[in-house]
Design goal:
With 266 residues, this protein is α/β, with parallel strands linked by helices. The protein has helices at 17-25, 59-68, 84-91, 105-118, 145-155, 198-208, 247-265; strands at residues 4-8, 29-33, 52-56, 72-74, 101-104, 123-128, 138-141, 160-165, 171-178, 181-189, 217-225, 228-236. Strands 2-1-3-4 form a 4-stranded parallel β-sheet, sandwiched between helices. A 4-stranded antiparallel β-sheet has the order 5-8-6-7. It has a 4-stranded antiparallel β-sheet with strand order 10-9-11-12, sandwiched between helices.
Length: 266
């Protein structure tokens, strides 16, 4: 059975035109929806729940699929495995931010003055533990305590965060992994292009062949910093941007992975 794709067309900042065109060119059915926001429940009953269905869209849509749609595979977005506190435990040796602290952001705010007393003139990178990214990771200077206060007001004091010394990044690449194989990649910083370095691809391959995997299909970001190659972060497949990656490979390989997963459950 060829998979059917269910694509959200109104996800903020996501252009699905190329993906939809490629799915159709490979002879598969694609259905589109405008997903309602603000907690409104979407009715998935009009879709054949016995079909092999791949979902792609924004994080709210993906969460909705997990909660209400018994599709297989549905959405590849294992939010528990996308937490830093999860995948750091398995892939820590490859991390850019090896020298990290992890704590509730309210605790970070409380300890901030003591931290900068011992380490002055330091810039820090701070990001949420959650793969759903309730706030955007960014650099905070030692004199910018108000930035930490702002995030606390935004997400609350209990939010678990990662803080690490700022690292200079020369380049960043995104790779797509399907069923333990790197199927495509591209550069997205400092410029977007369809190319990637062989060394960045090799590190993505190392991650793809680890015993522990965050999901059947997912994306991985590799960076170059101070002459070395490192893992920056892992993201989901179903709500990731693909930049200049090869869409033909993504659709073909993820569809094959979906069919394999569907057959295992049926």
């Amino acid at each position: 059975m060829k998979p059917c794709w269910l694509i959200q067309t109104n996800a903020e900042g996501v252009d699905v035109t190329k993906i939809i065109a490629e799915i159709k060119s490979q002879g598969m059915v694609v259905k589109t929806i405008d997903h309602p926001y603000l907690g409104t429940r979407f009715d998935f009953s009009k879709y054949d729940q016995d079909d092999c269905i791949i979902c792609y869209g924004g994080i709210d849509f993906v969460r909705h699929v997990h909660m209400y749609a018994p599709f297989i595979p549905g959405a590849w977005c294992n939010l528990n495995n996308m937490k830093c506190s999860t995948y750091y435990a398995y892939l820590g040796e490859h991390l850019l931010n090896k020298q990290y602290l992890m704590m509730p952001i309210g605790d970070l705010l409380r300890r901030w003055d003591k931290m900068i007393t011992y380490i002055t003139n330091q810039s820090w990178f701070i990001r949420p533990d959650s793969g759903a990214k309730p706030f955007t990771g960014h650099v905070v200077n030692s004199y910018e305590k108000h930035e930490i206060q702002s995030v606390v007001q935004q997400v609350g004091p209990e939010m678990l965060v990662i803080i690490a010394p700022k690292k200079e990044i020369a380049a960043e690449w995104r790779f797509v992994i399907c069923d333990r194989k790197v199927v495509t990649g591209c550069q997205y910083l400092p410029n977007e292009s369809s190319g990637y370095s062989l060394s960045s691809f090799r590190l993505a391959e190392i991650i793809a062949t680890q015993e522990w995997q965050p999901d059947l299909c997912y994306t991985v970001d590799i960076v170059e910093s101070e002459g070395g190659l490192y893992l920056l972060e892992i993201n989901s497949f179903s709500c990731a941007g693909f930049y200049d990656c090869n869409i033909e490979n993504i659709v073909r390989c993820s569809s094959a992975a979906a069919e394999k997963e569907w057959k295992e459950y049926n």
